[in-house]
Design brief:
- This protein is mainly beta.
- The strands form two sheets. Strands 2, 4, 5, 6, 9, 10 and 11 form a seven-stranded mixed β-sheet that branches. The chain has a four-stranded antiparallel β-sheet with strand order 1-3-8-7, with no helix packed on it.
- Strand 4 (34-39) and strand 5 (45-51) form a beta hairpin.
- The chain is 0% helix and 50% strand.
Length: 117
């Protein structure tokens, strides 16, 4: 059974940092591209970042480039998202995803990130 468990969210002031983690189980983690996606209140899901199976190729949506860094540890079956210089518009529930947009898509339960004074 595929399981993705996110952690690390919270309340942070603008300009602050958070590091999200996602523990994966139930599938061969090292053979899948992995993704972070988010959903702000009242809005659609949006892709944030993706990483290839080795961690050598990463991609980001334009609004987070230079501020967010995705990484993975295949030995620990864990995906990360380091978020720096956070802005109020980054407020959302952040989800770890496998096979984003595909028929075998899997998402975790999400972790809330709130950027506010």
């Amino acid at each position: 059974q595929v399981q993705l468990v996110e952690s690390g969210g919270g309340l942070v002031q603008p300009g602050g940092s958070l590091r999200l983690s996602c523990a994966a189980s139930g599938f061969t983690f090292r053979t899948y591209w992995m993704y972070w996606v988010r959903q702000a209140p009242g809005k659609e899901f949006e892709w944030v970042s993706s990483i290839d199976i080795s961690g050598g190729t990463t991609r980001y949506r334009d609004s987070v480039k230079g501020r967010f860094t995705i990484s993975r540890d295949n030995a620990k079956r864990t995906l990360y998202l380091q978020m720096n210089s956070l802005k109020p518009e980054d407020t959302a529930v952040y989800y770890c995803a496998r096979s984003w947009g595909r028929s075998n898509q899997a998402l975790g339960q999400g972790t809330q990130v709130t950027v506010s004074t």
